[in-house]
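hiii so um. not sure if this is the right channel but i have a protein structure encoded as tokens and i wanna go backwards to a sequence. like what aa goes where. can anyone help
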């Protein structure tokens, strides 16, 4: 109960600073493209070009076979887009406090906002990516159903998981600089452990159960179930949903507690 109370107090403090968090997120998003001729347009040009490259490589070049009744490029996009959001937020959130160490001297500034700022900044681009998925499905004549709306549920799942993880990594990296390299290796490992370019259906059940221990599996497959398989998240996934929220809930509470406990020592180390 003590840990839960600490995490709730932490969340209350962040909620009271929600306006500042939004302003910092806008500033962070703009600063990534500050000084370039096209400015913020680069944020949308890059994903558009990337999607075009994927289409040419897999649909035209490799002539990849459809995944079921859906073209391979659509199946892959539904996996790689949530993965890009997850990996970008985890990497940037891990270094968010180190990059803004000067803010630690400001008494009224809550550095717990910084990982959230990175997530919200990346969310702008991810929202554009989700729009791209809709456009691609319409271009291929694939049906858009109400199931597609539950992508926002899986987006919420991703954000909660990322908040817990980045609170842990962003606070630990201040005392243990190798954390950045460890996060990078874990991200690479999770990429190949997550069915992004390969289908989980090819695995024997004993190996599939191991893959399902990866929380990102739930999110990636959730995007596909929203756009491709048209399955509601509460249909036939009770155990997997319960497992995801149990793990994510523990990470979220643990992350808030670790951050609150280590926060008073940040200035001494930096």
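sure thing!! here u go:
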């Amino acid at each position: 109960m003590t840990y839960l109370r600490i995490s709730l107090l932490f969340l209350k403090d962040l909620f009271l600073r929600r306006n500042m968090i939004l302003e910092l997120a806008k500033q962070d998003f703009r600063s990534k493209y500050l000084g370039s001729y096209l400015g913020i347009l680069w944020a949308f040009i890059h994903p558009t070009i990337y999607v075009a490259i994927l289409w040419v490589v897999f649909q035209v070049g490799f002539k990849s076979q459809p995944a079921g009744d859906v073209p391979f490029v659509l199946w892959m996009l539904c996996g790689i887009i949530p993965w890009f959001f997850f990996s970008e937020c985890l990497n940037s959130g891990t270094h968010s406090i180190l990059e803004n160490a000067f803010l630690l001297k400001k008494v009224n500034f809550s550095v717990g906002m910084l990982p959230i700022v990175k997530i919200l900044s990346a969310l702008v681009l991810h929202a554009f990516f989700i729009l791209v998925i809709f456009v691609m499905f319409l271009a291929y004549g694939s049906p858009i159903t109400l199931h597609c709306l539950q992508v926002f549920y899986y987006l919420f799942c991703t954000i909660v998981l990322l908040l817990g993880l980045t609170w842990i990594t962003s606070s630990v990296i201040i005392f243990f600089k190798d954390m950045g390299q460890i996060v990078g290796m874990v991200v690479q490992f999770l990429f190949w452990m997550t069915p992004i370019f390969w289908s989980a259906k090819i695995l024997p059940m004993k190996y599939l159960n191991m893959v399902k221990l990866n929380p990102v599996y739930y999110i990636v497959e959730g995007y596909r179930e929203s756009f491709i398989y048209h399955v509601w998240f509460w249909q036939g996934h009770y155990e997997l949903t319960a497992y995801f929220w149990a793990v994510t809930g523990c990470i979220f509470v643990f992350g808030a507690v670790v951050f609150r406990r280590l926060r008073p020592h940040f200035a001494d180390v930096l």
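oh and The radius of gyration is 20 Å.
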